[in-house]
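Listing S7. Sequence submitted for prediction.
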Amino acid sequence: MAHQQVKEPEEDTWSKLGSAAVDRGDFKAAKTYFQSAVDLAPRSALGRYHLALVMEALGDFGGAGEQLTEALRLQPAMIEAARHLGALVTRRSLPGTVKLNRFGVQAALKFDLVNRDQIAEAFIYSMARGDPLKPSLDLGRSQGWLVAARDLCLKRTSPLLADNLFRTALRDNIIRMPELECLLIALRRTLLLEVPESRFQDRTLSSFVITLAEQCWINEYVWATSDDEECALRERFSGIDFTSGDVSSGIKLGIAATYAPVSTWLGEGIDEVSVRRVKPNIVRDFALDRLREDKLERSHSANVPKIAAVANANANATSQAVRDQYESAPYPRWTSLGVLTNKAEWQGTLRQFFDRDRLKFLDEPFELLIAGCGTGLQALAAATVYGPNARVTAIDISRASLGYASRMAERLSIPNVQFLQADILDLENTAEFKERFDVIECVGVLHHMQDPFRGWTILKTCLSSSGIMLIGLYSRIARRYLAELKNAEDYPGPNCSNRELRNYRQSLVKRPDGKLRDEYFGIRDLYSTSAFRDLFLHVSERNHSLPEIATFMSSNGLNFRGFMNVQDFVKLKEVLPLVEWPGKLKQWAELEKRNPNLFGDMYRFWCDKSSTHAA
């Protein structure tokens, strides 16, 4: 009997044609082929994922976002789709017509290793164009935010407050949407001052109180409060035994927790046994989660080893001031890692800056130093994208920051990172660090030192002869508006209280449209307390110019290998058609004069010890 050949499904044929078109760079044909495959097999998550990738390559970012959320709806565990969605909405603004699948977004927000903040934000902006969020925003714009807030909760509970995905977005993510912030601030005020106690028998409303408390905990209570709110908090909540088991007292604790951490209201020495008596359960569970997290963080902080005695930090006034700032306000407080690439893609990125021989070390176990790791976001992202061959050492001057970092490493099960307390200055006398590291990353740290170039010189001694180094330094040109703010009469100074910080932030947000507002209104650091302090109110900051950096690198045998955003080289090429990659810093300096916001607020670039190119 003759063997009968099994015919390949037609959608597989189209998918193979699509892949072949991608390989030869014909993305228009690839889109046609993958669209045909999806039309034949609409429930194929992989087909939609491939279609999304070619749509993104063709600049159809809205279509790519829609297909990625459809893929996640069909296959909620598809982390690659979630990661690409996070990368897409981080790099691009989606058009107003985009319709993200709610179930796909819900699936994406369950991953810790994707950029949840940006995904949640993209969804909220999409949601703002329809029910149930748009009516509240329209009402707030036309009649005032308090009117809109009262409509949400005073006599009835709006469907918006019951919307599960809206609440999920608020619970774990910082949303950069000024109008939503206005609505939530008004809603918090209304819950405190106007909503009668009997209304909280509505479980949807009492549950949303905790959603709002979780949002306020994430943004570190960055919203300003009025005098009458402060007065009400003192008069109505002082002396209450929140652990009595009385439901009314528990609801009051939930409302109070939208203004300050639960430990403020329960007392620092409260034990879990007492907190377990809090009612209703949703308030109890929220309070227990916060207290356990604080306790775990303190435990991790206490167990972080030191390099030497952190002697320089004690002796150097600038180091001491910087350490004190981050002890009281660890930065950044993050809840998802937001890895935008994988190991293979990251190595491909590195090959844009260094040849294959220079990167051979990646194939074997190698040493990586994160100098100034803060709360661990950069260190844990590096441990993930460099892969298990990387033995990551992450140092920081603040134990509180390191406690946060260590707790998150444990939560995310990332084992290849060691956290140490140290000032970069300490490394000068640490023999085991000399020429040890194949990769050093120091971004957003040197410019807070008394002498950034001295810190950079010390890091150079820690770099192996064939190692590579990523540096980040503030741009004086890009941060010119901050200099204006700091010279203004209303600037509260770096040592202001958190309440003064909140009031100052509110004054910035409420300024009429102008260059200062336009410059900073969309940045993420405006939307949490520690981030706002880090950006606007830092105790120590040194800004630099590219000529200064070029002079230092030339004098210290360092070779400029290129800025992290390689797309900017196209702009340099437009001005200087004959320029060769990666360009020279003096050429980039001329381009920055023409485009002061070219680098954002910080130069980020690769360098090494070789001398084949001049800076």
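Caption to Listing S7: primary sequence and predicted structure tokens for the chain studied. The radius of gyration is 26 Å. The beta strands are 366-371, 390-396, 417-421, 437-443, 463-474, 559-563, 602-608.
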